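Reminder to self: tokens first, then the designed residues, so the page reads top to bottom the way the pipeline ran.
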């Protein structure tokens, strides 16, 4: 299978690298494009096919992924539209905020035909093959949707959702990488005040978060139960959690999430 990733920035680049690491796609089967030649150097160096020509990149691909910012989507679609074979190629749109109806109308040809389009929201952890990826069919049938899902299944977990839930998915999982990192950063800062070096502190927090995630996976995702195991009444963890809540921890997280809701 050949894949074109139009726009190899934060998310497109992470998708390219993540897919190349899953043992199924060769870097030579993945073509990435960018707005500037200098953005392609890293990918060319890794063995990807790299091009500034979106139409050429899209022409040979089975799946064409659009991962440019919203303001560039129209230009990119206009460049690739006539190069595509709608009967064979699937379009994946990662442009979180770009309305799907508008995207379909950009692709619509004079005879009314449109390609199969799936909207996909991965997060940057796809580079480490640990993405939380949401998929919603725009107009794609089940077979094409499953083809796309099979690709993203190789680089993390996927969830099929209604399109109206993609915004919430973006907030919780894509922006969520930033929020999880903010916790790691804050806890590492605390670790430094407790006497660890900055480098040790961040490694300790990272391994602790990894351990917490592994516990959740082992035991049916029940964070309250795992908290109860460490927060014995009158103990240190209980004191710490109380102090965090008094400082508005849960409220702060929820406010951050709602502020970034699409
Ligand atoms: N970041 C995330 O976690 C995430 C997650 C899910 C979805 N998304 C969505 O993905 C899209 C891209 O976000 P991003 O964070 O990856 O942005 P970004 O880092 O700014 O990347 C945008 C990429 O598009 C390239 N580009 C610009 N003009 C182009 C053109 N005419 N043809 C081909 N490529 C072009 C840029 O290349 P140059 O830098 O060389 O101009 C850059 O590589 C957005 O719509 C966003 O909503 C992002």
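Designed residues (262 positions):
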């Amino acid at each position: 299978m050949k894949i074109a990733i139009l726009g190899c920035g934060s998310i497109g680049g992470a998708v390219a690298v993540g897919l190349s690491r899953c043992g199924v796609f060769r870097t030579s089967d993945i073509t990435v494009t960018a707005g500037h030649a200098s953005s392609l150097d890293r990918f060319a160096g890794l063995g990807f096919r790299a091009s500034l020509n979106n139409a050429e990149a899209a022409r040979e691909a089975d799946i064409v992924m659009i991962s440019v910012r919203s303001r560039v989507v129209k230009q990119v679609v206009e460049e690739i539209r006539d190069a595509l074979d709608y009967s064979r190629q699937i379009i994946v749109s990662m442009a979180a905020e770009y309305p799907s109806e508008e995207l379909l109308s950009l692709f619509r040809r004079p005879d009314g035909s449109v390609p199969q389009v799936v909207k996909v929201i991965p997060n940057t952890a796809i580079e480490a093959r640990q993405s939380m990826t949401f998929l919603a069919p725009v107009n794609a049938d089940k077979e094409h949707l499953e083809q796309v899902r099979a690709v993203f299944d190789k680089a993390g977990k996927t969830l099929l959702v209604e399109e109206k839930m993609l915004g919430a998915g973006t907030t919780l999982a894509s922006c969520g990488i930033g929020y999880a990192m903010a916790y790691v950063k804050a806890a590492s800062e605390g670790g430094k005040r407790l006497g660890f070096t900055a480098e040790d502190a961040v490694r300790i927090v990272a391994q602790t978060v990894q351990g917490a995630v592994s516990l959740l996976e082992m035991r049916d995702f029940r964070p309250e139960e795992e908290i109860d195991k460490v927060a014995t009444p009158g103990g240190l963890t209980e004191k710490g959690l109380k102090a965090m809540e008094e400082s508005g921890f849960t409220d702060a997280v929820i406010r951050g999430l709602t502020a970034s809701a699409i």
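Residues 170-259 form a domain with the ProC C-terminal domain-like fold fold (CATH 1.10.3730.10).
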